[in-house]
Amino acid sequence: MSAGRLCRKGSCLLLARGDPVLGATAWKHKSFKTYTAALKQEDFSKLISTEMVKIQKKAKEALPGSDWSPFKSMDHLPPEHADVVIVGGGIMGWSVAYWVKKLQTQRTTFKVVVVERDPSYSHASTVLSAGGIRQQFSRPENIQMSLFGADFLRNVNDYLGIENGDRIDIQFNPSGYLFLSSEKSAEILEENYRVQREQGAKVALLSPDQLKKKFPWINIQDVALASYGLENEGWFDPWTLLNAFRQKALSMGVLHCHGEVVGFDYVTREMLTAEGDSINLKRIKQVIVQTQNSLETQHVECMAVVNTAGAWSSKVAEMVGIGHGNPGTYEVKLPVEPRKRYVYMFHCPNGPGLDCPLLIDSSGAYFRREGLGGNYIGGMSPTEEEEPDTSNLDVDHNYFQEKVWPLLAHRVPVFESLKPLDTNMKVAVPTQEAELLRTVRN
């Protein structure tokens, strides 16, 4: 039990030991359990109230203007007012919170709240992803963002480090992405390469012979061209990065709430279009949050809402009528929906070693090493016809046996003897990478 938290044990309340302020006052010369057991409930309540006044007074003197409280669990409840409410506490949500606070120009308090319904992140795409970063995109904007992202990761302690905190180690592996293409898609890969180089990405095209020389363990049969990231690409620990964003944002004053956004209160204003048609424009006034393990809801007044709910972003948008509204404004549904994906782990003691990149085959299958002990993770996006049902999170082991493994073994013959290990699954949204994989495969 953490310091300063009230809990009920039997018929009396016990205050957890370890709070430095309480240790210096009421409990200084008393056995904690003996002292509290001797108190009547009324006396104990009065004592708590008296000590709370002293604590808050000391905190106010030590931290002017703060809302400090020893009851840490209260931080998980939403406030009644906020400037910005961020829906979704994955890496995108906490990144938005960090940048909003970092770019804040007002000297007055600017309140930012992150609402996350799954504090364990058991279903979050962030922590269940392969944790990759690359510049091998087809659009300049994506390449530019990723180049900045690479610089951010390289200097993550300058951005997200906390004074007197532990140094952040995201365990970055700069092994690059390796895309393989067939004759059918080689022209697209070459065209993307030119765009990437124009934007400053360090990428190289490899012929089949060059590919074989650099990675002797690859079967170059049916490979027409390869694209290899030389710098700023690889993979990292997404959980560590998420936690670093979160801790930094909290240190900057961002509030977090364990709950689910279940609706919005908004005002509607009627306007006329140039054609004379009447449309209704909505402005959100309040976010309705259902707190964790409770049927109660809290209305949070705010100026702005940021939707970072990942695979569930479309459902959040529907709460304000997006996808069900007036033509030209709200009629278009947010084109984001869940996609069920499997990330498999397998072991192959004689597999590729330190030089192993994140390889994406022309078939769409991919893999990368996981550490240096002969472990790997991999998978493949299914075709449109094979898209699995997202109503459950069951893992399809047959998909690996029948679809993924044969493709991996074809490209890396030593994988014929791999041994499947623990299997992971994530719910993800369609991404540029998924579209590129479909292009390469086709």
UniProtKB/TrEMBL annotation:
Domain FAD dependent oxidoreductase as annotated: residue spans: 83-414
Any GO molecular function: oxidoreductase activity
Pfam families noted in UniProt: DAO
Top-level taxon: Eukaryota
SUPFAM superfamilies: FAD/NAD(P)-binding domain
Entry keywords, A to Z: Oxidoreductase
GO terms for cellular component: mitochondrion
Any one biological process term the GO annotation gives: mitochondrial respiratory chain complex I assembly
Cited function: Required for the assembly of the mitochondrial membrane respiratory chain NADH dehydrogenase (Complex I). Involved in mid-late stages of complex I assembly.
Protein name: FAD-dependent oxidoreductase domain-containing protein 1
